[in-house]
Amino acid sequence: MLDYIGAARVVAAIVMQRLRANEEASAATSQAGRKRPTVLETYQARHPTPFAVLGIRAARDRLTGIDYLPRGAATLAPLTPIAERACREIERYLEDPEFRFSLPFDYCGTEFQCRVWREIKSISVGNTNTYKEIARRLGSAPRPVGGACGANRIPILIPCHRVLGSNGLGGFMHARGGYPLEVKRWLLRHEGAAAVMGNE
User: Which of 64, 91, 106 finishes a domain?
Assistant: First the structure.
């Protein structure tokens, strides 16, 4: 009888311990109604837009990446101040394509990739350039320029959608058709560069 009572007490103690742990976990994730980041969370935000869900990556106070996720992907409210700022600026861009982003980020790539990305960054809203022309400026060839565009981790801010092929839309996100090209068309039309679509 005593052994039974002792075992019951042990079970009760374990149950109470787990209840307290659950309460502490709930409190830790409810600050300002915002879930805290976890080791398993890939993005600091997953922000819905008309053309994609944008997966926002950030480290401390700097943007480190934006991924185009399918429109049906799960969304996630910003987990950090820099992710919240990124979502806010993306909304401003959606309202006004002339909006100038001020998010801090670094050019993280090879020397050649960074040169390409800086050329792309200089293309103004409503305008486009070609892989061939950028290659000519850099003393390179169109294919390596296309490779650098595909390696761009911060699209929209580094607007690789404004880089076209010599005879058409060119590629996007390592693809030459399907959903990636739909995203590219949407961004170009949003920025008023739809006239270039006539040569597709």
Answer: 106
